[in-house]
Design goal:
It contains 4 helices and 6 strands, in the order βαβαβαβββα. The protein has about 110 residues and is an alpha/beta fold. The longest helix has 12 residues. About 35% of the residues are buried.
Length: about 110
């Protein structure tokens, strides 16, 4: 099934965002977006959802740091990079709300 036309897919974080990994529609959409090489972004805890969907395989990424989150990214095939914002190809990840402005700017650059 082909995804609807879009320029960018972004997932915001927050304490509830890891629950999104339990939604099969969301997980399938993320997998399809990666397969179609769509620009994507995730901030705060949302990169853990991307990791579970396989979006971070072979990518550098960051996440809101808790004792578990760097390992969750690495389980998803990512190289955890402890920076505020990490851009790897068409993927942008950020570590939390304090990085939202820089995250937004990095996402805009993907669309240029």
């Amino acid at each position: 099934e082909q995804l609807p036309s879009f320029d960018l897919i972004v997932m915001t974080g927050g304490t509830g965002s890891p629950k999104l990994a339990e939604n099969q529609d969301i997980m399938e959409t993320l997998k399809q977006a990666k397969a179609q090489d769509k620009p994507m972004g995730a901030i705060c805890l949302a990169p853990t959802v991307f990791a579970k969907a396989g979006v971070l395989q072979g990518k550098k990424a960051t996440v809101y740091k808790t004792p578990e989150t760097p390992g969750q990214l690495e389980q998803g095939g990512a190289t955890y990079t402890p920076e505020k914002v990490v851009v790897d190809g068409k993927l942008v990840t950020a570590d939390g709300p304090h990085s939202a402005t820089d995250f937004g700017r990095a996402l805009l650059k993907l669309l240029e």
